[in-house]
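Hi all, long-time lurker, first post. I run a small reading group and we've been trying to get comfortable going from sequence to structure in the token notation. Rather than ask abstract questions, I figured I'd post a concrete chain and ask someone more experienced to write out its structure so we can walk through it together at our next meeting. Sequence below, copied exactly:
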Amino acid sequence: MKKKYFVLLLVAIILFGCTKETPDLKTDDCLPELFLPWIVNTSAFEMNASFSQSGKEFYYSVADPYQNYNAIVSVKQGKRIWRNPEVVSFSGVYSDFDPFLTYNENRLYFCSRRPLQEGLDKTNDANIWFVQKDNDRWGKPQALNTNINSEFDEYYISVSRNGSIYFSSTRPGGVGSWDIYFSQDQDSTVKNIGKPVNSAYREWDPFIAEDESFIIFTSDRQGGFGGGDLYISYKNDNGEWAVLKI
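-- Answer (accepted) --
Happy to help. Here is the structure in token form:
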């Protein structure tokens, strides 16, 4: 009943947000602008998103007012306007978040606290899952194997064009308490990306370039502008990550 209430509440928040008038935005090209205000950006808590290659399909996470549950929502562009957001077919029961659509758009990765085994209500840690598209429909969610998932939290996955996987995890043995890891694919050995990307502080939400030439991520290390800042690092000719830029 609680989960059904969350889904209904989430739909209500989305539809309520769509009825608002679009606020005026500054036109300065140097300033960030809200994406689809009152359609995607509403009074709810929206986070971590992924565009399709065409830019006409957008997946993102929406949380309930208390941020206890999350669902993955999609919005598509019609012939003239963007359609209303909808909770995707595989989400809305468990807490799902951090969607990432692959470059061929046939697979969507996401994080979830849904149970790894049937019969359980949920897991205590976040794991990485995926759904495969078949005949323009998303299939049944499948968890990545224990090579990627651990008994600790795994968050925001990003995948290069050749299938290399980057994600953040709170597993022990890293440079800090929350590090970025990578693997050539879901069956290969997982490695800590190391310094200078990881630090004694927390690093999370990586975005890897399609050719792995640069990585953008969030960190709360010292020297930033706020509690969590975006950093970028470029890979040099030796395959090493260069000094960070904020």
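A couple of things your group might point at:
The longest strand covers residues 127-134.
The helical segments are 2-18.
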